[in-house]
Write a structure and sequence with these properties.
Blueprint: H1 9-16, E1 21-23, E2 25-26, E3 31-32, E4 38-42, E5 49-54, H2 58-75, H3 80-96, H4 98-109, H5 113-133, E6 141-142, E7 149-157, E8 160-164, H6 172-183, E9 187-191, H7 197-213, E10 221-224, H8 228-237, E11 243-247, H9 250-262, E12 266-270, E13 275-279, H10 285-297, E14 307-313, H11 317-329, H12 349-364, E15 368-371, E16 375-376, E17 384-385, E18 388-391, E19 407-413, H13 416-424, E20 428-429, E21 431-435, H14 439-446, E22 455-458, E23 470-471, E24 474-475, E25 482-483, E26 492-500
Parallel strand pairs: 1-5, 8-9, 8-11, 9-10, 11-12, 13-14, 13-21, 14-19, 18-19, 21-22
Antiparallel strand pairs: 2-3, 2-10, 4-5, 6-7, 7-26, 15-18, 16-17, 20-24, 23-25
Bound molecules: nicotinamide-adenine-dinucleotide.
Length: 515
């Protein structure tokens, strides 16, 4: 398999320091584990065993956390631009390993190679962003009400940041968090998805080499691969971790948010989406078609920002659907490492079962299957499905939930206000888009009367965000923001300073207090 790219499993493993048997805990200076509890990483495409990983035990977690805390104490005293210089080197190390790392993402997670390459490019981009940021972690100077006083805000390093990531972006989400956290002066402990442990080990090998070469504390980048119920719970309950950045399902976010909230820690929650594109009768159908197709079929529907719903003006509905179904018929399904493939497998049999259950439920709830609805097994393993289109009412219970598979629900509208209501009429609030040439519709969509999502695009689809913007969503998507803009602030401790340079004591609000 994957002969076309030249990236065989053996070559990927050699370039990224992977072996058939690995261990799941790292403080940067190598790998260890003593749980005796082995995790298998299997190709979602063929089911081939890629490697076995001994998971981290609670004892391993304690050892890793000790290093992470010590590393923080040293790293916070390093000037931020110097920290940025290290992150620049991390970006360069990722550039050097872009091809094998992208191929590993395809091999272990199943997204097609061009998307794996895009994911690694995202890591490089966020490093570049963080380098610039390292010279601009600035707070304002404020006017004091008291004579000969000055006020200002400073941002200080926060501590150990816990990063919990989902399987579908097995390397980029970690980089979004760590590149910012490192320039902010924090150390990081990563609990990756147990479905993509090799991607985590490869990333750790790449960055550890950079920290070691620079004589820095290795605990700046720590990893514990282990069960959510043991290692995951240990991390979220740890009072020594002031910030947990967790990406995954809404159910996971509800649990983690509750635990961290109880100990009054800080969270960035990046949870499920249910993203729609409104396709107006006043739009360029070619662009709308390209965006809907990529949004719904790309990554086999396994992006948090995947297009799950199309809300189409009734006048163009039949014409648009004809073209979309014609595109669906041409989707080449197969080995994600083959450059001709457009759609790879779902992550595992569980995801296929969720797909089948959703198709069945949609039919029972009045949905009409327009395309797909079938499970495939091109390599003998039932992890592939046909991308699927179902015409259905927005209020159907199945449409209200996120099924992490390439199922697109389509519906009609007559008036734009009705389309907006449908767009907002789900519990999630991550990404949304409108295709329209009407300035009034585009502006209304982005206004306070419009989309209630964290991302609202005009003439661009719901998926494929750039790193420069703040990424995240509202409602059941969790309210967190990460990546660009001013998201760095969550990784730092804010401090307000008032300085009296006049000598005389003045109480605020004119309060008098003298003996
Ligand atoms: P998941 O919720 O099953 O797992 C996510 C991570 O949480 C994994 O590392 C898992 O081990 C960990 N986890 C689960 N329970 C835990 C616990 N009790 N304590 C600590 N850690 C725990 O999600 P998944 O199937 O890997 O990913 C798909 C989901 O992620 C989808 O819902 C998708 O929308 C969402 N997602 C959201 C974003 C975003 O930015 N909003 C990005 C990517 C994925």
């Amino acid at each position: 398999m994957a002969k076309q790219t030249g990236m065989t499993k053996a070559r990927i493993f050699k370039e990224l320091g992977l072996k058939a048997r690995l261990q799941g805990a790292s403080t940067g200076g190598g790998w260890f584990a003593d749980s005796g509890d082995w995790l298998e990483s299997r190709s979602p495409t063929t089911g081939e065993l890629l490697a076995k990983i001994e998971q981290a035990s609670v004892k391993d977690y304690d050892r890793v956390m000790k290093e992470a805390k010590q590393a923080f104490l040293a790293w916070r005293a390093v000037p931020a631009p110097r920290r940025g210089e290290i992150v620049r080197q991390v970006g360069d190390a990722l550039r050097a390993k872009k091809e094998p790392l992208a191929a590993l993402v395809s091999l272990e997670m199943g997204k097609i190679l061009t998307e794996g390459q895009g994911e690694v490019q995202e890591m490089i981009d966020i490093c570049d962003f963080a380098v610039g940021l390292s010279r601009n972690l600035s707070g304002p100077t404020l006017q004091s009400e008291r004579p000969k006083h000055r006020m200002m805000e400073q941002w200080h390093p926060l501590g150990v940041v816990g990063v919990i990531s989902a399987f579908n972006f097995p390397v980029a989400v970690w980089a979004w968090n760590t590149a910012l956290a490192w320039v902010c002066g924090d150390s990081c402990l990563w609990k990756p998805s147990s479905k993509t442990p090799l991607c985590a080990i490869a990333c750790q090998n790449i960055v550890s080499e950079v920290f070691a070469r620079n004589g820095l504390p290795l605990g700046l980048s720590c990893v514990t691969i282990g069960r959510g119920a043991t290692i995951g719970e240990k991390l979220v309950n740890d009072h020594d971790v002031p910030l947990i950045s967790a990406t995954g399902s809404t159910r996971m976010g509800q649990r983690i948010g509750g635990i961290v909230g109880q100990r009054l820690g800080r969270t960035i929650l990046e949870l499920g989406g249910n993203n729609a594109i409104i396709i107006s009768d006043k739009c360029d159908l070619t662009g709308a078609l390209a965006s809907a197709f990529f949004g719904a079929v790309g990554t086999a529907g396994q992006r948090c920002t995947s297009t799950r719903r199309l809300i189409i003006h009734e006048k163009i509905y039949a014409r648009f659907m004809g073209k979309l179904i014609a595109n669906y018929r041409k989707v080449k399904i197969g080995d994600p490492l083959d450059p001709k493939t457009l759609m790879g497998p779902l992550i595992d049999e569980g995801a296929v079962a969720d797909y089948e259950a959703a198709v069945k439920a949609a039919k029972e709830q009045g949905g009409k299957l327009l395309y797909g609805g079938k499970v495939l097994a091109p390599f003998g393993r039932k992890t592939f499905v046909l991308p699927t289109i179902i015409e259905i009412d927005n209020k159907a219970p199945i449409v209200q939930t996120e099924t992490f598979a390439p199922i697109l629900y389509v519906m009609k509208y007559r008036r734009f206000e009705q389309a907006l209501k449908q767009n907002n009429g789900v519990p999630q609030g991550l990404s949304s888009a409108v295709y329209t040439d009407s300035v009034a519709e585009g502006e209304a969509f982005m206004s306070y009367l419009g989309s209630d999502c964290g991302i609202a695009n005009v003439n661009i689809g719901t998926s494929g965000a750039e790193i420069g913007g703040a990424f995240g969503g509202e409602k059941e998507t969790g309210g967190g923001r990460e990546s660009g803009s001013d998201c760095w602030k969550t990784y730092m401790r804010r401090q307000t300073n008032t300085i009296n340079w006049g000598g005389e004591v003045h109480l605020a609000q004119g309060v008098e207090f003298k003996p």
